[in-house]
Design goal:
The chain crosses the membrane at residues 30-48. Helices cover 39% and strands 15% of the residues. The protein has 583 residues and is of the alpha/beta class. The chain folds into four domains: 2-60; 100-270, no CATH class; 293-381; 435-579, no CATH class. The strands form eight sheets. Strands 11-4-3-19-13 form a five-stranded parallel β-sheet. It has a three-stranded antiparallel β-sheet with strand order 5-10-6.
Length: 583
């Protein structure tokens, strides 16, 4: 319509006058009309392109919307990218557009240790938005069969202290096998110290790797599938016998190595540094005017208490745990009450501190989400994993060295509740054993009930041996047993008062709803058998997780996995109790 009108105007002007002045007017009007059309077209195109760009950003860079209160009734809305909220589509098949996370695996450790190392790596891959290349194998510990030859059928055997001909291994009948770095012909492999021997078994012997990949969406890939991706020449490879990553698996992709020392301070390493926040107080005389004077006074008292705690702990930067008395009995009442209160964050920000989401000390050794708490740290001492590692452009990011000991669950603290919740989700849903273990455990659970006249039963886990040597278990076995017996018997009162608690386990595993009794037979279970000690431990865990009540030792990751799985199957948390048995 606009275009037709412009064309008619042009014809009329031409007929009225042919002199140069009219031609000039005509030209100017035509150019103006053309300019209007171009402007309209450009504006529409801009809107469409911006809309397309915005849609793409919303899909590829999800964010959370937070409202932060400042002076008066004003609000400051800002968009913040949350690394834990990730709904991006599946990665492109083009390997050049994909990013991977690899690391050195401690294949000689017990399986439960290796399991939580894998859990930590999965959480890290999720945080950095990379695909974790899972280990290809684990060294099974101690053959439980009559002869080592029987176990040799499952995977290559590596005795400690002996030279192994790795070339002969390649020419053997094994379906898969580990390799040696730089095509070394003879090596002395690092094997499990408990037995001084190990069997290299594919990872899917211990772990439901398909479930890991499907649950983690696009943040993990099996080792065998990665080899296919890079068109690796030896499709039977399980990776390096040392567990270390080899650059020959890089497939020509760009590569960066990160030292394990980056992760050695679990008390100051966080998933992502906090967003800036306006402190309530700048100094003793200058403070924010958007809150009442009473809040400022409460903040002063709170800071005095925190300063006292820091001074009492010394200048060595000891972890400052959340002091519940500050919430319940101290100055932090009214407007400042509650761990999630934004005013409290602004208060401690006045001392250059922020609170972090964590788990209590009881979870430290078992590496499981148990006993939620918060910690207070100086911001200047914090190191953000996301902040320092996310923007690396290299396709392969390699975490170099052995990392697992003396670190908290996931080897990090969290600046947001979403981060801690994501860790809980990963360990409870992504990491589970192959289905065969669950099937055998279900049959064993029926046998357990046959010993208790059909009633539900209780379980614990007693670890001796190396734990006694390290002082992690009571030296006297009678004292150890008495601790377990006392804890299990105390559960009967709880279940008798609240018998409906048993419904959660019954719903998950079809177990008994009958209340256990103190006179039920108590026995140290020792008749179970399996090919390897590690696989036997998995079977024991799958059986114990079906118990009406579990009393676990917080010193061992054996307990950690049971706690994770019971939570995964929605068993009431009151039916699981964890303590340090050596105290």
């Amino acid at each position: 319509m606009v275009k037709d009108h412009i064309f008619e105007t042009y014809q009329v002007e031409e007929r009225v006058s042919n002199d140069s002045s009219n031609n000039l007017i005509l030209t100017i009007r035509f150019l103006k009309a053309l300019l209007i059309l171009v402007t309209i077209f450009s504006f529409l195109n801009l809107i469409l392109s911006q809309k397309s760009t915005l849609i793409f950003q919303l899909r590829s860079e999800p964010y959370e919307h937070r409202t932060v209160l400042f002076s008066g009734d004003q609000t400051n809305h800002h968009l913040e990218i949350n690394p834990w909220i990730n709904d991006k589509p599946e990665p492109e098949k083009d390997i050049r557009r994909r990013k991977f996370l690899v690391r050195d695996w401690s294949v000689w450790l017990g399986w439960n240790n290796e399991r939580y190392i894998i859990e930590t790596a999965l959480v890290l891959a999720k945080l950095l938005d990379r695909e974790l290349v899972l280990p290809g194998f684990h060294l099974a510990n101690t053959c439980e069969l009559e002869t080592d030859y029987a176990c040799d059928k499952f995977g290559p055997y590596f005795p400690g202290g002996f030279l192994i001909d790795m070339e002969a291994l390649k020419n053997s009948s094994y379906l898969c096998y580990p390799e040696a770095e730089n095509s070394t012909k003879f090596i002395k492999p690092h094997v499990p110290s408990q037995s001084n021997e190990g069997w290299a078994l594919p990872l899917d012997t211990f772990l439901d790797t398909e479930n890991v990949v499907s649950t983690m969406n696009r943040n993990s890939i099996e080792f065998k599938d990665f080899l296919k991706l890079i068109d690796y020449k030896d499709h039977k490879s399980l990776g390096m016998i040392s567990g270390e990553w080899s650059t020959k698996y890089n497939g020509g992709m760009s590569y960066r190595k990160i030292s394990s020392t980056f992760f050695t301070d679990g008390n100051q390493t966080v998933d992502k540094l906090h967003q800036r926040i306006q402190p309530l107080m700048v100094n003793s005389t200058s403070y924010s005017t958007d809150v009442s004077r009473s809040v400022i006074e409460k903040c002063r008292v709170t800071l005095d208490k925190i300063d006292y705690d820091v001074k009492k702990n010394g200048s060595d930067g000891k972890p400052l745990s959340w002091n519940e008395s500050l919430i319940n009995f101290g100055a932090l009442d009214g407007e400042l009450a509650g761990k999630e209160n934004h005013l409290f964050e602004r208060c401690i920000a006045s001392r250059g501190m922020r609170s972090l989401y964590a788990f209590k000390n009881i979870a430290f050794w078992m590496k499981a989400p148990y006993g939620e708490t918060k910690l207070i740290r100086h911001v200047k001492n914090l190191r953000g994993i996301y902040d320092e590692l996310y923007n690396h452009k290299e396709q392969i990011l390699h975490i170099d060295g052995e990392i697992h000991n003396l670190l908290p669950a996931a080897s990090m603290l969290w600046s947001s509740k979403e981060g801690r919740e994501m860790y809980k989700t990963v360990v409870r849903t992504a990491v589970r054993p192959p289905e065969i273990f669950q099937k055998v455990a279900a049959r064993l659970e029926l046998k357990m009930r046959s010993k208790t006249n059909g009633r539900s039963w209780r379980a614990s886990h007693m670890r001796r041996g190396d734990f006694v040597n390290f002082g992690w278990s009571k030296k006297n076995i009678e004292g150890h047993w008495n601790t377990i017996e006392k804890g299990l018997n105390e559960s009967i009162d709880l279940i008798s008062r609240e018998p409906n608690l048993l419904k959660s386990a019954n719903k998950a595993f079809n177990t008994s709803l009958e209340i256990p009794r103190a006179e039920d037979p108590q026995k140290i279970l020792g008749e179970l058998s399996s090919s390897f000690m590690d696989t036997l431990a998995i079977l024991e865990q799958c059986l114990i997780m079906r118990s009406a009540y579990y009393f676990g030792d917080g010193q061992t990751s054996f307990t950690g996995w049971i706690i994770n799985q019971r939570a995964s199957f929605m068993i009431d948390e009151r039916l699981s109790r964890v303590e340090f048995f050596n105290r």
